[in-house]
Amino acid sequence: MRVLVTGGAGFIGSHIVAALLERGHDPVVLDALLPAVHPVRPTLPEGVACLEADVRNPAEVARALGGVDAVCHQAAMVGLGKDFADTPAYVSCNDHGTAVLLAAMAEAGVDRLVLAGSMVVYGEGRYDCPEHGPVRPGPRRAGDLAARRFEPRCPHCGGELVPGLVSEDAAMDPRNVYAVTKLAQEHLARSWARATGGRAVSLRYHNVYGPGMPRDTPYAGVASFFRSALARGEAPRVFEDGRQRRDFVHVRDVAMANVLALEALGSHAAGGFEAFNCGSDAPRTIGEMARVLSAACGGPEPVVTGEYRLGDVRHITATSRRLRQALGWQPRVGFEEGMTEFACAPQRRLSHPVSTAAPATQ
Ligand SMILES: NC(=O)c1ccc[n+]([C@@H]2O[C@H](COP(=O)([O-])OP(=O)(O)OC[C@H]3O[C@@H](n4cnc5c(N)ncnc54)[C@H](O)[C@@H]3O)[C@@H](O)[C@H]2O)c1
Ligand SMILES: [Zn+2]
């Protein structure tokens, strides 16, 4: 299968290209090689064509689609911008870019799409109140966080909540511009599928980590911050009480989910769109992650600081059962194994790190 991987020079895209090659497919890459993400020109595997072009350029996208059977759309501006003034750039890259790509696919008769979705579409994770069942707490208040009351409370009775696993049916609650653009990408893909008889799948990635992850940016995620601290010989600084739960999924597992989704699309009903969580199904805390990374590096024990950032999500973990059932996919890289490898693997330096005010999840 010839697959156009947009953003194929990026962190996740490059692992998808490698996984496609391993399974005997024929990947081609379209990537704008954004200077903020690639201060140094990346090298692609031998024999893989890379069109250095912007996904918003209709002529280039049409050219890239020649002879292509399916598209794996990873190109996006990731994370949060420096401030709200970055909004037009995010919307343009992520949503206008997706619209141009989908229009070109319709024109070229390419009817299979796998989209890089994100858990950010859910906002907070799932919570249950023993009295009120599933509830949706709003953003946490600064006063509570300052008083070290980190757990969200039931909006009805103020009682303690039990964090659960988000399923694909959870209500959408995008809480920042990036999240809005990721949700809009899904809506565009759904409309495209319906209008053209195409087949689309969105894989809502959780916290992706692994070799090639950019470093020292908030959108690189908290794992990257800890690693950078350890590389300087410093203890990882764990915010809140370290008990925030996340779902860390290894980039090679995410890449394989993309390949399996691409392979399965041919048998999907025409005109259909489906979203799947793509996580490890093994929630861990930020504190646990810091300890595993420190141990792997022989570095200092993490320090739990009680600091917090307004807008950070307390817990967000998902069930990926649907994806496992639909594709026979299994995450293969265990947490200790993956984090130990990550602790020692090279990271990508970015040219100008973006705001540290951004939440640590994406
Ligand atoms: N990293 C995560 O944990 C995570 C989590 C959820 C979703 N995602 C999604 O996964 C996808 C890949 O993310 P990543 O972490 O590999 O990021 P990345 O920044 O490493 O890769 C993105 C790539 O897209 C390219 N790109 C950006 N805008 C483009 C444009 N307009 N035209 C052409 N190319 C463009 C960049 O040059 C880069 O190579 C994104 O869609 C992101 O929203 C990532
Ligand atoms: Zn309650």
From TrEMBL:
Gene3D superfamilies registered for this protein in UniProt: NAD(P)-binding Rossmann-like Domain
Q: TM spans, by residue?
A: none
Q: Give the domain of life.
A: Bacteria
InterPro entries cross-referenced by the UniProt entry: Epimerase_deHydtase, Lipid_A_modif_metabolic_enz, NAD(P)-bd_dom_sf
Instruction: Read off the Pfam families from this record.
Output: Epimerase
Q: Give the NAD-dependent epimerase/dehydratase domain ranges.
A: 3-130, 168-279
Q: What is this protein's name?
A: NAD-dependent epimerase/dehydratase family protein
Organism of origin is: Streptomyces orinoci (Streptoverticillium orinoci)
